[in-house]
Design goal:
alpha+beta; five-stranded mixed β-sheet; four-stranded mixed β-sheet
Length: 159
């Protein structure tokens, strides 16, 4: 398991897809991209999808994701994305009462039970007391991480 913290945006792409029966159908698919702004998110998803979609497509929606961290799996069978709500448990020192704060994660897994085991694998390495409040499959098709563009070096002018 690999985990990555970033500013994530959920985007929706609308385009004409050729179905298995050969007919064209207008579909909307959801993707997550790593970006610093809505503008960068639109540019990233447009660039990523232009290599997968022939023809026209539109970015139908962009919204900030509720999660900041994504757990990536290296297993080929883990082809779905699950949104997990964890409650971190702390004790208020003044009132000595239990306090729970909600934190969301996106988890790559093949099944619901594998998503839970991935969460426990990552969170087991921490000292945080937590409860898994919910895990639900999402409609997200894929996640695109930010690609660092190489900086072009200018050649010094020859004298």
């Amino acid at each position: 398991m690999r985990s990555r913290t970033a500013d994530w945006f959920e985007t929706k792409i609308r385009y004409e897809k050729t179905m298995e029966d050969g007919l064209q159908k207008k579909v909307t698919e959801q993707y997550t991209v790593d970006a610093l702004s809505f503008t960068e998110a639109e540019g990233s998803i447009t660039e990523e999808m232009s290599s997968y979609i022939s023809g026209e497509f539109e970015v139908a929606d962009i919204k900030k994701a509720t999660y900041k961290e994504i757990f990536f799996s290296e297993a080929d069978s883990d082809d779905r994305w699950y949104k997990a709500k964890l409650q971190f448990i702390t004790i208020d020192e003044k009132t000595e009462k239990e306090k729970r704060s909600n934190v969301y994660y996106l988890v790559q897994a093949g099944t619901l039970s594998r998503a839970v085991s991935h969460i426990e694998e990552v969170m087991g390495n921490t000292m945080i007391d937590y409860v898994i409040a919910s895990v639900a499959e999402t409609q997200i098709m894929d996640v695109f991480e930010h690609k660092v563009q190489p900086i072009k070096q200018e050649k010094p002018a020859e004298e």
